[in-house]
Design a protein that fits this description.
Strand content: over 45%
Helix content: under 10%
Strand order of the largest sheet: 1-2-3-5-4
Largest sheet: 5 strands, mixed, barrel
Number of strands: 5
CATH superfamily: Nucleic acid-binding proteins
CATH class: Mainly Beta
Mean pLDDT: 85
Distance between the termini: 48 Å
Structural class: mainly beta
Amino acid sequence: MSADNYSEENSIRLTGRLVLRTFGQRSKSEHLGVYLVTDQGDYLIRPAGANPFMNNPLMKLAGKTITAEGYIVDYVFLARSWKEGEEDPRPDAAI
């Protein structure tokens, strides 16, 4: 199934923290991947329409919380848009 077949109706919004993890460990495809860690699960994330073999622009946001809109194909969340969020959105988290 092609990712191009997804429409706005299939879009979902997820909020989570971006973390770097090894993808495809002990295989020829092994590389450092960007994962969106959410309450619903962990997803390899990349921009929709981006070349999966090029550097992921979300890598520079590792450690940050984002809200992303897009769709899931297998284990990959293809983000159409994303917005950086607060480190800890709880109001009582102030130091």
